Amino acid sequence: MFLFVIFFVLVTHVGSIMPGELKPDNIFLLAGQSNMAGRGGVYNDTVTNLLKWDGLVPPQCTPTPNILTLSLNKTWEIAREPLHKEIDNLKTCGVGPGMPFTNQILAERPDFGVIGLVPCAIGGTKIEQWQKGTILYNQLMDRARAASQSGGRICALLWYQGESDCGEQDAMLYKGRLEKFFNDVREDLNSPYLPINLVVISSGEGEFLTSVRDAQLNINLSNFNSVDAVGSTFIADHLHLDTRSAVRIGQKLADSFLYIISPRSN
């Protein structure tokens, strides 16, 4: 009962903030495909034969006034799971790495300020669909620019994608396409040293998963860091992270970002 009262007070407080008051200090772009959008807690309802989210939100994904999300209509709102439900709206979204990433940042850096997340990930997409000039690329740029108009600064791009590029031809072309995408994002946002944090995939739809992993592990860019999804556990489809692993990857991304921006001795 005591825990319920605390949670009720938190949710009531969060819900009382007027939308016009919400502005982030630091902004993160979340892009890629389904494991960034989040499928944690998604299951097949055997009665309806439809995919549903179980609605279970772990403590690491708790909403707070210090974590905002850019809605589909480009206004700032309190961030809540499923974070990508408006953006990846043709799929069933669940828990992803975005909320645990942000809560971990604030746990390690309480002075970091209000964080704004910009969900852009779309399930089932290939890197070819994210190249400059495509619908997904243009949407990413449009949402990034809209987010920064509020006065916050874009701190990093978080990228989790590649599962759909595990066919032979796509895998062979993956590294060049990915590096071009990253360079184009930096150029078009006028941020040549924008930190980029990538998740190295551990599951894929094809026989060339190892080739895509090798490409991701050998990206050669400044202000770039990666975390490996090896060791993750999955929902029933053996492709998408379960809630526990989505939280784990989010926390690893937080540590990866803080490593990039923290001064290091030689």
Automatic annotation (TrEMBL):
A GO MF label: hydrolase activity
Keyword Hydrolase applies: yes
Pfam families the UniProt entry points to: SASA
Name of the molecule in the record: Sialate O-acetylesterase domain-containing protein
Positions of the Sialate O-acetylesterase domain: 25-258
Organism per entry: Juglans regia
Ribosomal protein recorded as keyword: no
InterPro entries on file: Carb_Esterase_6 (IPR052940), SASA (IPR005181), SGNH_hydro_sf (IPR036514)
Highest rank taxon of the organism: Eukaryota
Keywords annotated in UniProt: Hydrolase, Signal
